[in-house]
Structure formats: C-alpha cells, structure tokens
Specification:
Layout (H helix, E strand, L loop, with lengths): L8 E6 L3 H11 L8 E5 L9 H5 L6 E4 L10 E4 L5 E6 L2 E5 L11 H12 L3 E5 L8 H9 L3 E5 L8 H10 L3 E3 L1 H8 L4
Parallel strand pairs: 1-2, 1-7, 2-4, 3-4, 7-8, 8-9
Antiparallel strand pairs: 5-6
Protein name: protein-glutamate methylesterase
EC number: 3.1.1.61
Catalytic activity: [protein]-L-glutamate 5-O-methyl ester + H2O = L-glutamyl-[protein] + methanol + H(+)
C-alpha cells in the first residue's frame, strides 16, 4: 500500500451546519502546524462575514479573512470572504476571484480544491464537511486525481449529508470519518 505524501496545504469546505463543524475542526489544529489552512464556508454574498473573528478564539492558529494576493502562510487559517472565490495562485500566494458562482455559491469549494490540486498536486489534504449542495464533489475529484488526499465527513454524521455523500459518489475518498475522528487525525499533523 502506498504511504500518502505528507501534505503541504490543507483545504477545507463546508456549507449547511459548517460553523459548528468548523469550530471542532479548528480547535483540533495543532499550534505548531507547518502548513497553511484555507477554508471555504458558503456565506451570504451581500453582507460582511465575521466568521474568522468568531472562530479565531477557538483555534491555536491565527484565523483571518483572505485578501487578494496574500502570501500563503504556514500556521494560519484563512477564510474566503463573502462574494469571492478563494484560489491557490501558486506555492506562495492566494488570490480572490469574482468568477461566476459555482452551484449558486461564491465563495465555492470546488475552485479552492481544484486550484490547490493544480498547484500542490499530491501534497494537498482536502477535507469536505457537512453541506446541502454538491459543491466540493468536482474539487475532491481534482485533488484525488492529482494524488492528494481527501477526507470526507461521514454523511450519517453530518448535519447536512448531501455534500459529503455527493463527493463520495462522484470521487470516492481516502477516508470517510465522523467529525471527532477527523479532529483526532488533524491533531497528528505537523
């Protein structure tokens, strides 16, 4: 059996039920994490988000909202802002995009996962959590096609099962885990 390549970046997607799930996930991230963490949570496009501010106290890492052309920083959790897709531009930088919504969402999960896969290939760890759309399915497929790892929240454990179930059907997964097990495995990252 092939041993997975250690990730250099973690990308996380969530929608319905995602705030609660992300609180657990961010609490699990170790303080000395040596890689950046990028997050898309489906947000209303027409008002400011306080999600980074809300979740920062729960996390040992710095949590902030993305800015265009911001450097990728290890040990930092960066959220997509409302009405922008969050993309990995290259191995050093992120970008924000106003490309068309994907499955009615901007930010959307697929563009983040696909851009991370294009830049980091087998060094991506993608985590898809609860949600009520099929956003993330194509992104999980791109990550797995590039040799990266994809962990999906077990649909039966998710507040909204459609998102992880859709990705599992479309692309499979390297692990299908209950949220508590995702958190345990995240604690092992360096």
């Amino acid at each position: 059996m092939d041993v997975p390549v250690p990730p250099r970046i973690v990308v996380i997607g969530a929608s319905a039920g995602g705030v609660s799930a992300l609180q657990h996930v961010l609490r699990a991230l170790p303080a000395g994490l040596s890689m950046p963490v990028l997050v898309v949570l489906h947000l209303p496009r027409d008002r400011p988000s306080r999600i980074a501010e809300l979740l920062d106290p729960d996390c040992a890492l710095v949590v902030r909202e993305a800015e265009d052309k911001q450097p990728l920083q290890p040990g930092t959790v960066t959220f997509a802002p409302p009405d922008y897709h969050l993309l990995v531009e290259d191995t050093t930088m992120i970008a924000l995009s106003m490309d068309a919504p994907v499955l009615f969402s901007r930010p959307a999960i697929d563009p983040l996962f696909e851009s991370a896969a294009a830049v980091f290939g087998e060094q991506v760890l993608a985590i898809l959590l609860t949600g009520a759309s099929s956003d993330g399915s194509e992104g999980v497929a791109a990550v797995r096609d590039a040799g990266g790892q994809a962990w999906l929240q077990c649909p039966d454990d998710a507040e909204a099962s459609l998102m992880p179930a859709s990705a599992l059907q479309r692309a499979g997964a390297d692990a299908v885990l209950v949220l508590s097990r995702i958190c345990e495995r995240l604690k092992e990252l360096k």
